[in-house]
Design brief:
- The protein has two domains: 160 residues, DD-peptidase/beta-lactamase superfamily (Beta-lactamase); 143 residues, DD-peptidase/beta-lactamase superfamily (Beta-lactamase), CATH 3.40.710.10.
- It has 13 helices and nine strands.
- The chain has a five-stranded antiparallel β-sheet, sandwiched between helices.
- The N terminus is likely disordered.
């Protein structure tokens, strides 16, 4: 009986908070509560847990779903990595013109083309080239080179803390993240492993070990973000609070030209919609985080959408992301509040 009373009280308090929040939303913008309900409805076919962070930059209006729950970022963690690298550029600690040679141990598995095109070391590219490969095509080899140049995971996290962003953690290079997802337990420190060695380690993992590793990955707190934190980071990026004007525009320009995730935030937006974004996908995780530039001077809206722990096909998850993004786009287009 005591447990029942405790649960009932918790539910009542939760409803009270929700109603209070809804009342505040309704007073500020009567349609926000309807949009919040529609986002929750559109999230239901995902087969997993959906997190959404929405901020209309010009008016500060916000909508969240599972605002402070942790979600695996997958490749969307490349945004905070890029911000830390460009912070070092702005502080004259490193130059994007720096040339870096790809070594065999830099060729890592996953999305991208470097490991597919180059079986041998000897290719030399600028740090800016690697930054663009990381964001344009989500190249994992380029990402780990950029992360190292940015000072590593600790430096990225220190920058997030410096900015007051407490809900984003970058903890591993992509090779370690993928290795943990697969179930590899013998990866060398720092992810220094050749492609052939990685493939051999992967083949040695049993199917049961893979399934156990995948389930553990879903609840691993490393390399995760909350929708609130990611949305805040993107809003502050657009407002020029994180980087110099030159670095801000460079990062946004690259994100606008991203070739990944055409069926996600962009999926059902009107033709020629301008979106600066970064996707992420691994296992039951499918994400897209970005900034939609609304037409007719309706402003700009941040949309950070995460799906985790889903066993449905990626296409289904992508449709969920696309329809949530379209609902947000249309609401703020027709209700700019300015």
């Amino acid at each position: 009986m005591h447990r029942f009373r405790t649960t009932t009280i918790a539910v009542v308090l939760g409803l009270a908070v929700a109603l209070q929040y809804g009342s505040a939303c309704a007073q500020e913008d009567p349609g926000l509560l309807r949009l919040e309900n529609e986002i929750a409805r559109l999230a239901s076919p995902s087969g997993g847990t959906v997190g959404v962070g929405v901020i209309h930059i010009e008016t500060g209006r916000e909508i969240f779903l599972n605002a402070d729950e942790r979600f695996p970022m997958a490749s969307s963690y490349k945004v905070p990595i890029a911000i830390q690298l460009l912070t070092k550029v702005d502080r004259s600690e490193i130059s994007l013109q720096k040339m870096i040679e790809i070594e065999e141990e830099d060729l890592h598995p996953g999305s991208g083309t470097l490991s597919e095109l180059f079986d041998d070391p000897g290719v030399i590219l600028s740090l800016r080239n690697y930054l663009e490969l990381m964001l344009l095509i989500s190249d994992n080899s380029a990402t780990d080179i950029v992360l190292r140049a940015a000072g590593g995971s600790d430096a990225v996290n220190a920058r997030m803390q410096e900015l007051g962003i407490t809900g984003i953690n970058v903890d591993r290079p992509t090779v370690e993240l993928i290795g943990d997802f697969i179930g590899i337990k013998e990866l060398p420190p720092g992810g220094k492993v050749t492609p052939s060695a990685f493939r051999a380690l992967s083949r040695a993992v049993s199917q049961q070990e893979r399934e156990e590793a995948s389930n553990a990955f879903d609840v691993d707190p490393r390399d995760t973000a909350t929708p609130r934190a990611m949305a805040s980071l993107l809003a502050r990026l657009w407002q020029g609070e994180l980087l110099s004007p030159e670095s801000t525009e460079l990062l946004l320009d690259i994100m606008r030209r991203s070739t990944t995730g055409r069926e996600r935030i962009k999926g059902v937006l009107p033709p020629f919609a301008m979106v600066a974004h970064k996707t992420g996908t691994i296992g039951g995780t499918t994400n897209d985080v970005g900034i939609i530039e609304l037409p007719h001077n309706a402003g700009h809206v941040v949309v950070a959408i995460f799906v985790k722990e889903s066993r449905r096909e990626v296409e289904t998850r992508e449709r969920v992301i696309a329809h949530i993004a379209r609902a947000v786009h249309d609401y703020f287009l027709f209700n700019p509040g300015t």
